[in-house]
Specification:
The structure is a single chain. By secondary structure, this protein is mainly α. It has two helices and no strands. Helix 1 (about 25-35) runs antiparallel to helix 2.
Amino acid sequence: MRVEVQVDRLPPTRPVRPRAPLPLDKLAGVAKGLSDSPLKEALEQITGGQAKRSTRSKR
């Protein structure tokens, strides 16, 4: 017994577009406007960690 199968080609996959960098100043502004909450802590952690890395002195 012989079985033949015809398969259509899959369409090409779309290329992945890189994400734009986070607007740290806007995230910090949103965090300042929130009351104490886990979301506020997370936003402060994101903006604080990014800002510290970008302002480190380069000796």
